[in-house]
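Appendix B. One record, verbatim.
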Amino acid sequence: MRYSRQNKVLELINTQEIETQEKLCQLLKDAGYDVTQATVSRDIKELQLIKTLSASGNYKYAAGASFDGPITDRFVKIFKETIKSLDSAGNIIVVKTLSGCGPAAGEAIDSLALPHIVGSVAGDNTIMIVIDDPGHTDEVLKEFRKFL
C-alpha cells in the first residue's frame, strides 16, 4: 500500500500545484487513501520531495532532481517488493506488479539503466518493456531475476 500511495503522491505533484502537506493529505484521501499528516510527512521525506517556485509564484512540492545511489537502492527495493511475475514474447517483456505499483516499478526499472532496454510503458499493474533485439531478452530477464 505504501508504494501505491507514494506513486499517487508523485502523480499528484506532477499534475497539480500542491503547496502544503494538508492539501496533499486531502487529495490522497479524496483518491481513497487513508492517510494522516504524519504519513504524508514520511512519504515526502522518503520520496525526497522538495519545494520549488511554481509558474504562479507560489511554492509547490516537486520531485528532487538527483537520483543517486540511495534512491537507486530504494528503487531496487520497490522492484523486489512489487513484482508479481515476469514473462516475455520476442523482444517484449511483460512485468505484472501489485495493483497501483506499475509506475513505481517502471521507474525502478528505468533507474537501473540496464543495457538493451529501448523503453518501457507502465500502467496500474503492468509494465511493457521493449528490448532492442529478441536475442537480448533472456539476458535482461536474468538481470531482473537477480533483483528478485
